[in-house]
Amino acid sequence: MIPQEIIRRKRDGDELDAAEISSFIAALAAGRLSEGQIGAFAMAVWFKGMSRAEIVALTLAMADSGDRLQWADIDRPIADKHSTGGVGDNVSLMLAPIAAACGLAVPMISGRGLGHTGGTLDKLESIPGYMITPDANLFHKVVKEGGCAIIGQTGTLAPADGRLYAVRDVTATVDSIPLITASILSKKLAAGLQTLVLDVKVGNGAFMADRDQAETLAKSLVEVANGAGVKTSALITDMNQPLADSAGNAVEMRNCLDFLAGRKAGTRLETVVLAFAAEMLVKSGIAASPDEAEGTARQALSSGKAAEVFARMVSMLGGPGDLIENPDRYLARAPVEKPVPAARSGWLAACDTRGIGVSVIDLGGGRRHPADRIDHRVGFSGLLPLGIRVNAGEPIALVHAADEAAAERAAAALAAHYRITEDKPELTPVIAGLI
């Protein structure tokens, strides 16, 4: 099929068949298309959209553009979770070992920070020696023997997605639901999953600020993934405030270790982690009901079994074997730590979550350009949740910075990101819906 004919048909609103889509993606992966042709196709999809059958075909074609992982020698269900990204969202770090401790095999392929949102790989790189890009044999060994492995995407998994995304990024076509759906799911299909649970964030710290947009994306992801043969569901979760009480890299890794040690009980973060663990266990057939599944997950956490799985994963992937026992030996601390005082007395009613994420980047904890180096030490900890009453001057967070000047700027910025009111606010629930 001639590429420009495929572009023309989509431009005119025609529905492409699976063979046309497969042909176009094969040409893209092989380098036979110009950036102009790729951009024109992406723009045509942005304007005209795609039917469910077209999105399934696009997702499968992109998944088939590279290697597909095989897990035939593992006798446990193969499951994973994906988040659309947020601030203080370190769910994956705890969820993978909890799910593995409950009987799942979790080959979790994660990403770096995107825009104002933090990246799981950046957090893991705060652990000395941790290999985020092990070879295929080691990845397989860790999943088989350890139960879970959290690593980065290799160039052989869904390579067509990498080239298409690079062009989308410079042609204002990133926010196309068909293209977002295919991009996310092609990598998950290539990972050989049997079940998948999606975390679609909504709020002022999410890419989808509107509830209707988030539901539309969640439904697209769930329907396409199920159409491609992977049992999938999605939870819509609130991102109108940081999920954890930390935002950064090493500070979120400390938060993870505290969580696995049982020191984050009763938090919004615990609610989300256990909800996803329960959904993974039910979807995979490990548990018969959400209540049974949550009980199993809580037991894995309280018994210390999940912490043991996490420690084994870190060690097998090159990190220290005693990270959980001696975090201060390995997780570097910023030289300056400065409290952020409340500007006035009252209730913490709202915050600019995206602004908090940007403040982490300003501290050096994220990237403005792909080649930027990250300072893993910096960020915020002790972030108070919304709905708390504070007194003027009381700390609402702690800044971790490379120097005094950066700490002063970050403290002022963070204080400005919070709104304090006389009346107690009504807050949105952290779990907003199930698709």
TrEMBL record:
Subunit structure: Homodimer.
Gene3D superfamilies reported for this sequence: Nucleoside phosphorylase/phosphoribosyltransferase catalytic domain, Pyrimidine nucleoside phosphorylase-like, C-terminal domain, Transferase, Pyrimidine Nucleoside Phosphorylase, Chain C
Listed GO MF terms: thymidine phosphorylase activity
Function: The enzymes which catalyze the reversible phosphorolysis of pyrimidine nucleosides are involved in the degradation of these compounds and in their utilization as carbon and energy sources, or in the rescue of pyrimidine bases for nucleotide synthesis.
Secretion signal, residue range per the UniProt entry: none
Family, per entry: Belongs to the thymidine/pyrimidine-nucleoside phosphorylase family.
Domain Pyrimidine nucleoside phosphorylase C-terminal, residue spans: 347-421
Keywords: Glycosyltransferase, Transferase
Enzyme superclass (EC): transferase
Protein known as: Thymidine phosphorylase
EC number(s) reported in the record: 2.4.2.4
Reaction(s) catalysed (UniProt annotation): thymidine + phosphate = 2-deoxy-alpha-D-ribose 1-phosphate + thymine
Pfam families named among the record's database cross-references: Glycos_trans_3N, Glycos_transf_3, PYNP_C
Pathway: Pyrimidine metabolism; dTMP biosynthesis via salvage pathway; dTMP from thymine: step 1/2
InterPro entries: Glycosyl_Trfase_fam3, Glycosyl_Trfase_fam3_N_dom, Glycosyl_Trfase_fam3_N_dom_sf, Nuc_phospho_transferase, PYNP-like_C_sf, PYNP_C, Pyrmidine_PPas_bac/euk, Pyrmidine_PPase_CS
PANTHER family: THYMIDINE PHOSPHORYLASE
Native species: Rhizobium changzhiense
